[in-house]
Known about the structure:
The complex is a heterodimer.
Chain A: H1 2-29, E1 44-47, E2 50-61, E3 64-77, H2 80-93, E4 108-114, E5 119-124, H3 136-153, E6 159-164, E7 167-168, E8 182-183
Parallel strand pairs in A: 5-6
Antiparallel strand pairs in A: 1-2, 2-3, 4-5, 6-7, 6-8
Chain B: H1 4-17, E1 23-32, E2 35-42, E3 48-52, E4 56-61, E5 65-67, E6 80-88, E7 91-98, E8 102-110, E9 114-122, E10 135-136, E11 178-183, E12 193-194, E13 198-199, H2 200-219, E14 222-225, H3 235-244, E15 249-256, E16 266-271, H4 279-288, H5 295-311, H6 317-334, E17 339-345, H7 348-351, E18 357-364, H8 368-374, H9 377-402
Parallel strand pairs in B: 1-5, 11-14, 11-15, 15-18, 16-17
Antiparallel strand pairs in B: 1-2, 2-9, 3-4, 3-10, 4-7, 6-7, 8-9, 12-13, 16-18
Helix pairs in contact in B: 2-9, 6-9
Amino acid sequence: MKGKWFLTVLITIAAIFFSVSLILFLRAGRSPLTPAGNGAGDQAESRGDVRLFRATLYYYRESDSDLVGFPREVELPGNAAGGYRRFLEILLAGQPGVIVPVPEPVKVRCVFYLPETKMAVVDFSETFDGALFGGSQEELEFIAFFVTNLCRNFPEIQKVKFLSGGVDIRAPGGHLDWERTYPFDPAWIAQP
Amino acid sequence: MGSKRPVLLFVLSIAAILPLSAVSLTFRSFDHGGFSRFVIEGDSPFAHSVVSTPAEIQVTLDHAAQLTTAPVPIRNSQLLEGFQHQIRDGHSVVTIRLRKPVRIRKNFVLESPFRVVFDLVPAPASQAAPPPPAATPVPRSTPPPPASEQAQPTPSATPQATPPAGEPSPSKRRAIETICLDPGHGGEDLGAVGKGKLLEKELTLKVSRKLRELIVSRLGLRVVMTRDRDADVSLNGRAGFANSQNAQIFLSIHFNSSRRTSARGSESYFVSLNATDDEAMELARKENQHNGGGEEAEAQSDELKMILWNMAQTEYIRESSRLAESIQTELNELLDTRNRGVKQAPFRVLMRTAMPAVLVETAFVSNEGEASKLRDEAFLDRVAAAIFNGLSRFITYYNAQVQ
Lengths: 192, 403
């Protein structure tokens, strides 16, 4: 009888702990990395944890030396950081007739946004180190591809920094300085 | 069996609490070059807000933290008197007490480990510390320290008594005497690879040798090369070598490639020095280089290096642009390749050269038509001749300016 009473108290305490923890955890999870209603969210229609996002995906084509935009609706997770990453996954999947200027082993590990510098940081997995960038044009196209797509689709992003496995990238192809941050350059987009 | 259920529930409730477990904090501070740095380090990321008054700076964490070790008192700081950690309403509050009013010069966040860094400088008289940004969001990662310097160059010219490699020499306007040619890539760095194993590193060396021949025989100038064989040479090493040789022109020879096989033509680049690397990033790098000792000396050394390196090309941008124009014009005239023009980009090898510096992308090895031309020695002769003509036109202009 005494043991049963003890178990009931224990279950009650555990249930209270669980409820409080769950509430706090869910509240903490709602803290966005970016200000609410900023940038991408303005173009999105929320559907629970997934939002429908009207994006323009920029790609190279064999016939164009500059990036060309393709409007498309994509589903992104509700939170900003997850949204950026999913956006890049969709982007990297490509579409018929376009060139994705990204070497095969390159995978996006995570993307985060630093509001104080209005900068997105794209962190590639360590496989980036095995990527071959032959010419400076390949490097420029790679950088322009990521920077244009992020800056043009998420107005809160004004520049992009690249990392590999959380570590600074210096000059993977022996040309450009990848330690710096790159702002969007309108010259990268084909003029209509 | 039934008696195990409450235990299971208890374990589950504890597991649910785990994500909320407290962050452990450590603190450190030091003075350096006119500012005082205060660092709050956590074993995991935390959100926080900052409020400052003339007497103190208060950093409030979004939840309660615990201290890994007892706070070490601040000694011998010109601005920091001490600090205190308290728990108020379930939030950790770190109060940094000040000896005198300060201005927060920088407040930034780093990771691995997660750190909140304050750089404080004395406030101008009768001015209190202005309020910094309200709350700093938590990044998942940040730039870590750069890797150590790479290999040194393998110079092909006779060494002279020179300033230390890597530091820009003092510039003196005098007629051109020395030119540094930089055959791109080399050794394990193949550069671009065209069809039929057309290697950029071999093409750059061939053209550079031909160009050296032309410069020496026709202009009688001294030519140094960052490499004269198939060797690995770091980008910093190439720039450092050119600076140390007191070269007055730096010419980096490359061949291009693109995933678009139709891409073709020649381009001449001079460096773009857009101020995109903001100071916070520089400081972040320095802070990331913290290894537990000698911070002051390290920070000072880094700061000097940064200033020296990044300012090296600034003085020569206009001349670099003119040199690029001159070479590109000749390439357009002599070669049957599409003109892609003079462009600017942050080429690492150019950024740190203290002289007019240009990188020439002669043609695309990824383009079938251009690749087949590049297999022809006569075409490479024409490439070298085109670059030489542009170079000599620039030298004529430059020398006329200094006389």
